[in-house]
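Q: Please design a sequence for this.
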């Protein structure tokens, strides 16, 4: 499988605090990759460093062969990476459709509004509703949907199921499976490995700012003891 994202010996700092210690990771084109780990081990920091939000970084990040360390933050989306942060960032005073239309299209291949509404029927029903009227699950769907319109090639998700009802978690899982069928590449951080096991091709297990394991979903049953120890579940 052709590598789309390659991360090698990635280090990052918050001021004087060294938070990533030589992270290595590869995401193949069309893969769904999940980073597992407890709170505070560096999962979100890894995503934010890849996206260029954290600028105190050293190592190598290549997206489709392009050196991302030299790309300014405001150009990251134009290269083909789309980030859905845990806080979602929905504009409360805009309607659902206005939120959808807000990010610019950066490349061909993005989903049309019709395709997005077919994927997220709830959003079509609420298309005229302001962001303040949306449930947490609807906000998460909207945060994902507006990135899909832009034409990005790698969808980066930070804790997409955090705090959501089981029925919404199931719906997001179905959406991610459909995106995979369309050839979308997905990198997500997730603590709910039972949810992740239904959508991921491979897992990276993170602890203390390092990747401590890398394995395909088929090995998940054999890794459960290790996961229980590292994740504390």
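A: Design:
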């Amino acid at each position: 499988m052709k590598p789309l994202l390659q991360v090698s010996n990635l280090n990052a700092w918050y001021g004087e605090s060294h938070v990533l210690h030589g992270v290595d990771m590869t995401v193949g084109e069309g893969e769904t990759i999940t980073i597992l780990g407890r709170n505070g081990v560096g999962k979100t920091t890894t995503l934010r460093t890849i996206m260029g939000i954290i600028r105190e970084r050293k190592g190598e990040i290549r997206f489709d062969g392009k050196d991302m360390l030299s790309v300014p933050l405001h150009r990251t989306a134009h290269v083909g990476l789309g980030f859905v942060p845990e806080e979602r960032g929905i504009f409360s005073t805009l309607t659902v459709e206005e939120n959808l239309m807000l990010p610019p299209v950066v490349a061909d291949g993005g989903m049309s509004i019709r395709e997005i509404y077919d994927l997220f029927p709830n959003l079509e029903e609420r298309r005229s509703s302001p962001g303040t009227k949306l449930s947490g699950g609807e906000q998460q769907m909207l945060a994902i949907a507006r990135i899909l319109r832009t034409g990005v090639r790698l969808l980066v998700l930070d804790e997409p199921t955090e705090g959501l009802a089981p029925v919404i978690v199931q719906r997001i899982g179905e959406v991610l499976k459909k995106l995979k069928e369309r050839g979308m590449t997905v990198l997500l951080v997730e603590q709910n490995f039972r949810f992740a096991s239904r959508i991921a091709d491979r897992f990276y297990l993170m602890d203390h700012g390092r990747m401590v394991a890398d394995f395909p979903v088929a090995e998940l049953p054999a890794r459960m003891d290790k996961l229980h120890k590292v994740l504390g579940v």
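Q: Thanks. Anything notable?
A: The two ends are 32 Å apart (CA to CA). The CA atoms of residues 82 and 163 lie 22 Å apart.
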